[in-house]
Write a structure and sequence with these properties.
By secondary structure, this protein is an alpha+beta fold. The chain contains 3 helices and 6 strands.
């Protein structure tokens, strides 16, 4: 019993003192922007908000909410894959929509990116998103034994 308690305390101490790891692959957005595309701290990966930009450029994909929603989800997948993770690692997503009336259309695209289990999620409308996007999504992923 004492051994298990000591191990749990030691593990919690390591997690609590782990230094954040800042990640920029440059595969979705140019790496020289003033934020990290993702940050690992302990066993949690925090993804910056993704917009529906053409990978490597600050230009949005053409089309309406469906094409922009698909590109946002592809950008999330690309960012995760660039660092050795996938959509199944996601535990929480926050969806920001330029128009709340686009929620149903976004949801139709979103649900195709997951098999059986969906991350916890919240959604809200906002008054304007970066570069005129119709949708932005930020996510949190649970990762085990991050070594980035």
């Amino acid at each position: 019993m004492k051994s298990a308690l000591f191990t749990a305390i030691a593990f919690a101490s390591v997690i609590a003192t782990a230094e954040p790891v800042y990640l920029n692959s440059g595969k979705v957005l140019p790496a020289n922007l003033p934020f990290s595309e993702a940050v690992i701290h302990g066993d949690i990966l925090y993804l910056s908000g993704q917009i529906p930009n053409v990978p490597g450029k600050l230009r949005l994909v053409e089309g309406g909410i469906e094409s922009q929603s698909r590109q946002v989800m592809e950008n999330i997948r690309t960012t995760l894959n660039a660092h050795g993770y996938d959509m199944e690692h996601l535990i929480k997503c926050t969806v920001m929509l330029d128009e709340i009336s686009d929620w149903a259309a976004f949801n139709e695209v979103y649900k195709t990116y997951f098999d059986k289990q969906f991350p916890a999620r919240s959604a809200f409308a906002t008054d304007g998103l970066a570069v005129g996007a119709l949708v932005e999504v930020e996510c949190i992923a649970a990762i085990d034994g991050a070594t980035q």
